[in-house]
Amino acid sequence: VQLVESGGGLVQPGGSLRLSCAASGFTFRNYAMSWVRQAPGKGLEWVSGISSGGGSINYADSVKSRFTISRDNAKNTLSLQMNSLKPEDTAVYYCAKGRFSYGYAVVSDYRGQGTQVTVSS
Asked: What is the Cα–Cα distance from 64 to 37, expressed in whole angstroms?
């Protein structure tokens, strides 16, 4: 299993970023996927998850209405569109593979190396 995130960077408060995750080494379309993040000095936080077919999606309350998760099973990619970013969104963001096709991959068995997102003026 290989998960490679990209798209992080430095952005001002109120700005937007789009994260991408390229997946390989497993049958991507068969598994729920998620994004998790880790802020400096804090533990892992589940951000958003999507079922294998993309029909079920869920978000943490902290990002609801600002972030949008999506997947392209033909291209084996997972994305996270992040709008109205806040300083508290600063974290390393990881793409994570769920264990099952259903659900939101709250519990994952693989994560990528992560991409840094910094929200600061």
From this structure: 15
> At CB < 8 A and 24+ separation, what contacts does 112-115 make?
112/2, 112/3, 112/4, 112/5, 112/21, 113/4, 113/5, 114/5, 114/38, 115/5, 115/6, 115/7, 115/8, 115/19
Helix (H) or strand (E) segment spanning residue 88: none
Tell me, what's the pLDDT at 62?
A: 96
- Integer CA distances (angstroms), 11 to 42, 52, 86, 87, 120, in order: 21, 31, 9, 9, 6
What percent of the chain shows pLDDT beyond 90?
A: 93
pLDDT for 101 beyond 90: no
The pLDDT value recorded for residue 103 is 85
Element (DSSP H or E) covering residue 75 = none
What is residue 47's predicted lDDT score, i.e. its pLDDT?
97
Give the per-residue SS3 of 41-68. CCCEEEEEEECCCCCCEEECCCCCCCEE
